[in-house]
Specification:
This protein is mainly alpha-helical and about 140 residues long. It contains 7 helices and no strands. The longest helix is centred in the middle third of the chain and has 28 residues, at about 40-65.
């Protein structure tokens, strides 16, 4: 498993914690306090979490517009945070191809979500890519 996959998994855990508590204060220190990980894993996970937290309203709006018949609040916490993380990555991290981001999100959804999570995440991310081709085009 590559360092970015592991970082995404850690980021998902932190975002889950943030989503439940709605508290970002002390999130990073508390999460990393009992883990020994490579610096690049910690750094990438922190970038994802910080980016999602700072942009959560905009990201949730993108999810809302792309998820027909689904409210963001009613989505499974795991699926919602995988989507948040992937959308942040698609829109703000230029050096990762969109296909890689989407594939990683689907694989993480299959591992941590329910049986339908992979296809659910895939459908919404495909819609986000179509709706934001002008931003994502150079990453495809």
């Amino acid at each position: 498993m590559g360092y970015r996959r592991k970082a995404r998994e850690y980021a998902l855990q932190m975002l889950y914690q943030y989503d439940i508590s709605q508290q970002s204060s002390g999130l990073f220190d508390g999460f990393w306090s009992d883990k020994v990980v490579q610096d690049d894993i910690r750094e990438f996970a922190n970038i994802l979490v910080d980016g999602v937290i700072k942009n959560v309203s905009m990201i949730d709006e993108k999810i809302r517009l792309s998820a027909s018949h689904w409210s963001v609040d009613r989505m499974a916490v795991v699926d919602r945070n995988i989507l948040r993380m992937a959308i942040f990555e698609l829109l703000y991290i230029r050096d990762i191809p969109a296909k890689v981001t989407i594939n990683e999100a689907i694989e993480i959804a299959k591992r941590y979500g329910v049986e339908e999570s992979g296809s659910f995440v895939n459908g919404i991310l495909d819609r986000v890519v179509k709706d934001h081709q002008e931003i994502i085009a150079d990453k495809l």
